[in-house]
Amino acid sequence: MLWAPELMLTLLPFAAYNTASPISRARDKFDWSSQRALIAFGDSYTYVQGTHGLQNYSFIGDQLNFAYDAQTLLSNKIVQNQTASAEGGPNWVEYLTKCGLQPGLTSPKHCKKQLWDFAFAGADISTEYTPLHHNFTVSLVNQITQFKSYAAPVLQQFLPPSQSLVAVWIGINDVGDSSKYAVDFPTFYANLTRTLFTSVNELYDLGYRSFLVMNLPPLDRTPGNQATSTPHPNATQVAWYNDALAEKAELFRRVKGDVEVRVFDAHARLSAMLDEPGEYGIVNTTNFCAGYDQPDIETNYRAYGCPTPLETYFWFNSGHMTSHVHRILAAELEDWLQG
After folding, report:
1. I want to staple 42 with a disulfide (CB 3.0 to 4.6 A). Which of 82, 92, 169, 212 is the partner?
2. Taking Cα atoms as reference points, which of 11, 92, 120 lies closest to residue 321?
3. What is the DSSP string of 284-306?
4. Around Cβ 26, how many Cβ atoms within 10 Å?
5. Where does the secretion signal sit in this chain (predicted)?
């Protein structure tokens, strides 16, 4: 599978762009404290279970049940239990908004900062580059198409775009699924991120101007990749994707002029946790508890061969981080957003 050079988005000169630099912070105009809602897109790192979603995959709908009406959306509730996210507990968007943290059901409308989550577990950016994991999977491109058609007309009646921060965390599956492709990876990732921002542009056309983009975690340090001398993806591939993401974000900001795009360096924050786990209450960074999905894992972890509680692990399972790590990441993200 090869990608022609002419498919690449032409990049403007990219001079010393640093996502956490004082310069990039100074030009950010939106104030997270004044935002009323977070509208999220992505994959299993971001998805939350909804009462009208596909179990273990979405807040609402799927590719085979694509359309929904206003009543379905507005009556939908966030589910919070052991299986309502891919982390065994709340994830970063729930911690960031404080919406849906309590066990049971929460209506996004009743949160001080509303969380409207259209991420789909197992999503890639587009079938143009990688196949769907399942025939019901909603890719990022289709998440945004679905949002435009069915959610935006409803939400914008009470949530103006100016009061909503759009968050996108995607690429984890893309880089993993394509890690053994016979392609020129910098070009391939340039095309992936071009398509990502083509879809973000559709949200811009709906009036949204504040965007948060998360870069890739250290996928080369998952338990499986730590156990091999040939990780897939490797650190170089992860870095190439993150570089392409930063370049496209900067290009989008320059071309639009009136948009704020902040790229949060999740890779650096999570790498710091892996490098100095003791500072974060983590004792295990190399593997995960085999009983992570057992209903009594919180209190009976030793029965599954785990010497310490689940919250002391970095990895929840072979590819996802624990809720404890998501909580720390969300706290650092909130501080960063508030500048």
Report:
1. 169
2. 92
3. B-S---TTTTSTTTTT-GGGGT-
4. 9
5. 1-20
Give the integer Cα–Cα distance in Å for 138 and 59.
Answer: 12
What is the total count of domains within the chain?
1
Structure-block tokens of residue 126: 């587009």
Token pair listed for 189? 């990732």
The pLDDT of residue 23 = 31
- Answer whether residue 6 is part of any domain: no
How many angstroms separate the CA atoms of 299 and 283, rounded? 18
115 vs 241: CA distance, rounded Å: 27
Cα–Cα distance between 83 and 192 in angstroms, integer? 30
Structure tokens at 173: 């599956």
Confirm if 291 and 306 have CB atoms less than 8 A apart.
yes
Give the length of the chain.
339
In the prediction, which pLDDT does 339 show?
A: 78
19 located within any domain: no
Q: How far is CA 230 from CA 34, 225, 261, 328, in A?
A: 46, 7, 34, 30
| Token pair recorded at residue 207 | 């009036």
**Range of 200's domain?**
31-268
Predicted confidence at residue 1, as pLDDT, reads 34
Q: Which helix (H) or strand (E) holds 187?
A: helix 185-205
User: Residue 40 forms beta bridges with which residues?
Assistant: 117, 167
Question: Rounded to the nearest 5°, which phi and psi values hold at 16?
Answer: 45, 50
Q: Which residues contact 26 (CB under 8 A, 6 or more apart)?
A: none
Tell whether 73 is covered by a domain. Answer: yes
CATH number of the domain that 163 lies in? 3.40.50
The whole-number mean pLDDT for each consecutive block of 10 residues of the chain, a chain of 339 residues, reads 34 33 41 94 98 98 98 98 98 98 98 98 98 98 98 98 98 98 98 98 98 98 98 98 98 96 97 98 98 96 97 98 98 93
CB 50 within 8 A of CB 78: yes
Q: What share of the chain is helix, strand, coil (3-state, %, to 5)?
A: 40, 15, 45
Residue with tokens 């994959």: 43
How many of the other CB atoms lie within 10 Å of CB of 62? 18
